[in-house]
Amino acid sequence: MNTSMNGLTVPDVSVGQRSPEKVKKLKRPGRWASYIMMGLVAVLVIQSVATNPNFGWPIVGEYFASPRVLDGLVNTLQLTFIAMLLGVVLGVILAVMRLSTNPALYGAAGLYIWFFRGTPVFVQLLFWGFISALYPTLALGIPGAEPLFSTDTNSLITPVVAAILGLALNEAAYMAEIVRAGIVSVGKGQTEAAHALGMSNMRTLRRVILPQAMSVIVPPTANNVISMLKTTSLVSVLSFPELLYATQLIYAENFQTIPLLITASIWYLIVTTLMTIGQYYTERHYNKSTRAQGLSIMRRFIELQKRRGTNDAPAR
User: Fold this and answer.
1) Exposure string (b/e) for 75-106, b if CB count within 10 Å is 16 or more?
2) Which candidate among 30, 84, 104, 263 keeps its CA 20 to 30 Å from the CA of 247?
């Protein structure tokens, strides 16, 4: 309806209604310019990589699935898994020691973390590889008496053992700080509630604290796994046949250095991409379960308090 006012016709707009207006989109010329620029750069890079014969793509395709490269990849994955497993287990122990009120425990843990974080992992690998220069023989026994066990160091500390020790002991120092940060992030009320339910310190840590701390622990741990996968390339100095050393042995024979390095890089990218996808789903799982875990403990604590209140109420 239209309303006449002083000879003018004014449209009648009901309360709560507005005349339709077109929403104008903001013009972003800078964004479109960046799209065009990045597109041109991508085209130039792809053209250069695809047409440059020095990349040796036929050789990359030839050796990409060769048995020697695949064996090196398997050794890399095994070394990553073993080193991370030992590093995580030792890191949890060191984190608990760091949070202990015993001066001997947190002092020893602090000294360990200080040493292994303060020296490069490459230097540590070299020390383990040449440990026989310091200790030609390893013996176990009571000082001043005949050793109960004695063996040659080189026969015990093989390249694979030196690689595992160097990577795992170094990783444990970083994992200790990650786990400690996760434990500290859990509120003290959770510990008090668990103790009120009659849980011991170790059971509280295992059943209450660590599950809730996983949302803080998992992201940096997953990053460390990916970093560990790439750090395994350093053990080539110990002549351990992981992925990089396997490709080095091949291009030492055919002198095709760049294509073989590209082959190794592609495999590293594939594995790290799969690990990144796994990291995403793992983080999402723990972000969902953390709240439920905390609420479960608090519900049990509240129910226990209600029962105590009911039992303590005077009979009428």
Assistant:
1) bbeebbeebbebbbebbbbbbbbbeeeeeebb
2) 84
**Which residue shows structure tokens 């439920």?**
292
In a 3-state reduction of DSSP, which class is residue 2? Answer: strand
CA angle 262, 264, 266 (to 5 degrees): 70
Q: Tens digit of pLDDT for each residue in 73-104?
A: 999 999 999 999 999 999 999 998 998 888 99
Alpha-carbon gap, residue 241 to 69, rounded angstroms? 9
Q: Indicate the pairing of strand 2-5 with strand 8-11.
A: antiparallel
pTM > 0.70: yes
Contact call for residues 249 and 170 (beta carbons, < 8 A): no
Maximum Cα interatomic distance, the chain, rounded to a whole number of Å: 121
Q: Which two tokens stand for residue 284?
A: 């999402």
Task: Report the sign of the C-alpha dihedral through residues 298, 299, 302, 307, in that order.
Answer: negative
Give the separation between CA 41 and CA 281, rounded to whole angstroms.
33
Q: Which two tokens stand for residue 31?
A: 């964004």
Rounded CA separation 212/96 (Å):
16
In 272-287, which positions are buried (b, 16+ CB within 10 angstroms) versus exposed (e)?
A: beebeeebeebeeebe
